[in-house]
Design a protein that fits this description.
10 strands, six-stranded mixed beta sheet, 8 helices, alpha+beta
């Protein structure tokens, strides 16, 4: 089997982070996703009443010279909607600086906008709405917080296309309190230093202690987010699970990290178990409340259970 080069390893690592982020966003509660958008884009969408819809991420554009279709695949496109608003967001994840990323997210934005275009009956007028773009950098980045492209038109008019660039590791854990869904990625802080040439066992032990401190801070921040209702019990369980999986993927092969890896697994397992139990209790309480409301309206208990798909639900009337 041929040995993997640095480029192949980097691509595999980026794919792991991309897939983890997509999984977190799709499985998290709507309120947690809305809170993340609010924090990254400085918005104020209501957490409990905003609906989140995940849009397609594959688009096609026709190449003018050949007429062939080219597939464009974005990381994440979602629409937030509620009373009086419906806004689409494009999220692209990046492991580190890449000068081509700005042009790519512009092309992705155009593809998303064209998919929702409106055209007048006579074809003389078209309108497209560009999504709000954001670049999420998993590791240190020197790019500005706002990146932009100036689009110049004949006659001197111009438009400045802007995209938010959010760099996770440029912040402390406490500064990410409003972005709980990104917290598992904070363990990447030691990844580059760990992979440097000449990193001996002593250095790895030091980094393992550093990682242990980050993990403790992450868990405290997640628990605070749960207490503040930014995330749910299910979100907490999901994030701790992904934190454990990513930690094992990144640092599981180093014997110097055995203790922190074992402690995190125990920590995550106990927290996930507690979160699942609490979530089930909340779900059962909510289900009983629905059944009771129907019973008060004259629906028999058995019929009410069938309507909601409940099996044997203990309920004292």
């Amino acid at each position: 089997m041929p040995k993997k080069g640095k480029k192949d390893e980097r691509r595999e690592t980026a794919q792991i982070f991309d897939l983890t982020l997509k999984c977190i966003l799709r499985e998290a509660s709507h309120s947690a996703v809305v809170h993340l958008i609010n924090s990254v884009h400085k918005k104020n969408y209501p957490l409990q009443t905003t609906l989140v819809k995940f849009e397609p991420t594959e688009y096609f554009k026709e190449l003018p010279e050949s007429g062939k279709l080219q597939k464009i695949i974005t990381d994440m496109v979602l629409t937030l909607s509620g009373e009086g608003y419906s806004d689409t967001y494009l999220i692209e994840a990046q492991i580190d600086d890449d000068a081509r990323m700005l042009l790519r997210i512009f092309n992705y934005s155009v593809a998303v906008a064209l998919a929702g275009k409106t055209i007048s009956d006579n074809g003389s007028y078209m309108e497209i709405t560009m999504p709000y773009p954001a670049l999420l950098y998993f590791e240190d980045s020197k790019t500005e917080d706002i990146v932009s492209i100036r689009i110049k038109f004949p006659g001197g008019e111009s438009v400045l296309y802007k995209a938010t660039a959010f760099k996770i590791l440029n912040h402390s854990v406490s500064e990410l309190d409003g972005m709980a869904l990104l917290l598992p990625f904070y363990i990447l802080r030691i990844r580059k230093e760990l992979k440097m040439k000449g990193t001996d066992s002593g250095e790895r032990k030091r980094l393992s202690k550093e990682l242990e401190g980050y993990v403790g801070d992450i868990v405290k921040s997640l628990e605070a987010s749960k207490k503040n209702s930014y995330i749910t019990d299910k979100d907490l369980a999901l994030l701790l699970e992904k934190l454990d999986v990513m930690n094992s993927e990144l640092y599981g092969k180093y014997e110097e990290f055995a203790e922190v890896n074992m402690n995190l697994k125990k920590w995550a397992t106990s927290k996930v178990s507690k979160a699942v139990k609490e979530s089930r209790a909340e779900g059962q309480a909510e289900g009983q409340a629905k059944l009771f409301a129907l019973w008060e309206k004259g629906v028999s208990l058995e019929d009410a259970k069938k309507m909601f798909g409940f099996g044997a639900v203990s309920m004292t009337l």
